[in-house]
Fold:
Amino acid sequence: MKEKKFKITWNSPVVLGFVAVCLVATVLNYITKGGSNRLLFMTYHSSLKSPLTYLRFFTHVFGHADWAHFVGNMSYILLLGPMLEEKYTSKALLEVIGITAVITALINYIFFWNIGLCGASGVVFAFILLSSFTSFKEGEIPLTVILVAVFFIGQQVIQGIMVIDNISNMAHIVGGIVGGLTGYVLNKKSESGPGVTV
Structure:
């Protein structure tokens, strides 16, 4: 009897690519003592005349303050991402990441001009809410969606009001809203039958 050979597969290109870029950005942040984050991987109220301001609207989700920040976010991304990429396609997941990045950056730029924002926390919350829609059927709202929204988004609202810390509750809330809306839209489209591209 032949023994089955096991091989490692690149099963989730967007998720694995995202994690790889975040790893490189985190390593660079250590090597440059925070310089690379300030230049490329953190969004803040910088001049609109600088092309880097617009680039950072997208790239701030790759930067992380330290290893604990990186590992915490990547654990969720690796846990939830492959399932979401398989269900919704790589293109759709890439769009969720991009939309979350830009919306959180714009809100931070306009309303929190004195605070720098970096990290994939918004993407994590988008994935959490998006994953709760995996058993969605038209005309129904899964109880899991309601509970996830109450526990995760509610906690962020309370922490944003009651606790002063270095965590951007705004990014978490916005990410959760983007994930929830995207989950609803994607599942509604798939319910409408074949021939619909997402």
